[in-house]
Amino acid sequence: MDLTPHPLVVRARRLAADLLAPEAERVDQEGVPRSHIEAVKRSGLLGVTAPADHGGAGAPPAVAREVAEILAGACGATWFVQTQHHTPVQTLARGEHAARERLLGPLSRGELLSGVAYAHLRAYPRRPVRVRPERGGWRFDGTVPWYTGWGLNDVMLLAGVTDSGEALFAFAEAREQPGLRASEPMRLAALTAARTVSLELDGLWLPAEAVALRTPYDRWAAGDRVRTLHTSPAVFGVAEAALSLLDTGTAAPLHARLAGIRRRAYELADESPPKGWTGRPATAMRARGGGAESEAGAVDAWAGERLAVRAEAYELLRTATTAAVVAGGGRAMALTGRAQRHAREGLFLLVQGQTAESREAHLRALSGAPADTAREAHLRALSGAPADTGGRNT
């Protein structure tokens, strides 16, 4: 077995050790500097999963996960700004020709950094951002509740829903312009440094060639639901960083638990959805009657297992960051201390990418709800509750 680390993992470790971790407490209080973003661009890490024929590394998922863990454990704010970039790259790789040819190379090579503005799509059938054709292009109106990396990103992947129920994704320059206005940066309990704003869209016009993806909403939602079921690698990265603040005897059993949960989470992430997966609630499948019950049961089980592992990972993260604070004593309360920063980063990760479904599952795990009650709550969340647009970005 070849145990040699991937070159991008080596670069991530070097970047973390030489720049991100030593500066993390200052960045946490003052904001991610542009010099950090330039260092990330030079490292090649923005192209970790980008296609090689456009200048990316085309690395396998295991490498991308390890890189994400390293960056998140070193500086959560810098990790969060750069992690937005990978969705636009993957969208372009399978998207519309004009946008792909113009932007995929620069994004893959790290010449440009992209942000994302699409979490609000999960509120559907509400449409916080509406899109309609105008003058040979597309007009965007509405509010983007969360946009991270303002002032650091070069471009953004902006999404809305058309009158015909399509999800439409298009690229815009990440700056104020006619039809696009940003709020002041938000003061948040965690990751204020990532420069998160809200965006007001009032007739923002984008040309047809800016469109990266146009697809029926249900088709997009099916893939998005898969992503929100899985555990973010950042959870393991921050947990590892917190455990590094403990003595060996205290950390050892937690390291063992982390390794087991991580292994299972990544095994599940590599499995394909079951037969009949559409991203729609299993209750809708059961309504068809016939032999749909077995497929619906498989969907329930597939989603439920991933949400359970995600909740277990959150519990380990809470334990690790709490232990780091306890071990640090009063010193841990200083804003210059690592333990309090990791604890706040852990709180942020509890709601990152949160949906109604994942929130219900997490609350069940926290409350110790019996299995029957848990399943009923799960079905309630899937069948009727609108997704929470408060779940930040990716």
Record keyword descriptors for this entry.
alpha+beta; 52% helix; 8 strands; Acyl-CoA/acyl-ACP dehydrogenase; Acyl-CoA_Oxase/DH_mid-dom_sf; AcylCoA_DH/ox_N_sf; globular
Structural account:
- By secondary structure, the chain is of the alpha+beta class.
- The protein contains 14 helices and eight strands.
- Strands 1, 2, 3, 4, 5, 6, 7 and 8 form an eight-stranded mixed beta sheet that branches.
- A hairpin with a 2-residue loop joins strand 2 and strand 3.
- The radius of gyration is 21 Å and the shape is globular.
- Pfam families: Acyl-CoA_dh_N (PF02771).
How many DSSP E strands? 8
The largest sheet, given as strand count, sense and whether it forms a barrel, is: 8 strands, mixed
Radius of gyration (CA) equals 21 Å
Shape: globular
Order of helices and strands: HHHHHHEEEEEEEEHHHHHHHH
Question: Number of helical segments?
Answer: 14
Spatial gap, N to C terminus:
34 Å
Name the structural class. Answer: alpha+beta
| Poorly predicted segments | 371-375, 382-387
The percentage helix is 40-55%
Mean pLDDT: 91
Strand content: 5-15%
